[in-house]
Amino acid sequence: MMFEALRKYINQYTSSEISEGAFDTVSKSFTPKHLLKRQFLLQAGDVCKYTAFIVKGAMRQYSLVNGVENIVYFGIENWWMSDRESFTMLTPSQFNIDALEDCDLLLITHDKVQLLKESVPQWNKMAAQMDHRHSIAMQKRIHDAISLTAEDRFLNLIKSNPEFMQRFPQNMIASYLGITPESLSRIRKKLAKK
Amino acid sequence: MMFEALRKYINQYTSSEISEGAFDTVSKSFTPKHLLKRQFLLQAGDVCKYTAFIVKGAMRQYSLVNGVENIVYFGIENWWMSDRESFTMLTPSQFNIDALEDCDLLLITHDKVQLLKESVPQWNKMAAQMDHRHSIAMQKRIHDAISLTAEDRFLNLIKSNPEFMQRFPQNMIASYLGITPESLSRIRKKLAKK
DNA sequence: CGATTCTTTGAAAACAGTCAATCTGTGTGG
DNA sequence: CCACACAGATTGACTGTTTTCAAAGAATCG
What we know:
The structure is a homodimer.
Chain A: H1 2-13, H2 20-28, E1 31-35, E2 40-42, E3 50-56, E4 59-65, E5 68-75, E6 80-81, H3 84-89, E7 96-99, E8 103-109, H4 110-119, H5 121-147, H6 150-160, H7 162-167, H8 170-177, H9 181-192
Antiparallel strand pairs in A: 1-8, 2-7, 3-6, 3-8, 4-5, 4-7
The structure holds a DNA duplex.
């Protein structure tokens, strides 16, 4: 069942199991949503009204700069998807978020997130840890981006997220790495020779 | 006085002014520290024991990969400096943090941060907002890194942090942008022609 | 099967990196 | 106060990597 994935997720981040009552409050704050492949959760210019918890499926967040897609983020099961800036500031987003596979999602608005932070301590703790982990992960990616060659960034990605290789087409992996699909194809060719 | 900068900072992030008692608890958790230019707050291999609030001065966080410095982060007045990963996980850091100018800092340990989160609601709120803002800023930088040319990244930096230009030498700006000092010099030359 | 999308390959051009030399400005010690 | 050393910035020539554009091969899906 959809909400069980969320319960498991929350329990991972807190020392003690969340109580039935608290979890009830949490789950009431979410709306289930099914997205078909290629459907959008967010389109550039709109405000990101929802943060999605991915129960099943895969998504991406990307900008479109004169015809070129730049993927900043992939999401799979048990990950959160949203444009944090737009979601919290209620400003129009420059990003698109769409489904790369059919998805089962749980959606929550910013208001509800705030309410849960105040009323469910375990949620508050989890949310803080999430932000914290997210910013650590982002910092790693920045370091990779400025200090490693495209080849090393690719090798790092294989190590850290091998599942991405099976799941996403190469042109999207290339976009995520900040290179062209042609370059990635050549890097793979070169690596295969070893 | 050193702590006044911190009080101002906290009040910026909370709707109501922090009480004297609460601020007392906060300020007791910090240790003032003066760092001379070129002195280290953190050296690679060590655990990042402190997060520093910069009252005065400027710092940088960088890795050293076979002789090349890669600056991931600059800090100036009213910014926080620390390797978040090492600081929270208590793992050895791969980064160095040193002073680019003589600095007045306020240092706090991870234990104290946790205590303040539990005992001072305003601190807790501020800390959560800080993390949140930080991860938004990091996401922007990733987007820049993967989707913009070096020239556009440089122009963006001038817009978002013009003070960096006056304050830091060009070779460090180059490192922050992920290019060589020579490349940045040529980019500047090209831009000057317009 | 045909259509579409994804990947690979090739050749040329644009871009960024390396190495070495020169130039500029700053600060220190004689 | 000058001369010198030093760090940072610029320039040139060269090399290497990545992009671009175009075309040809796979793979996938209806």
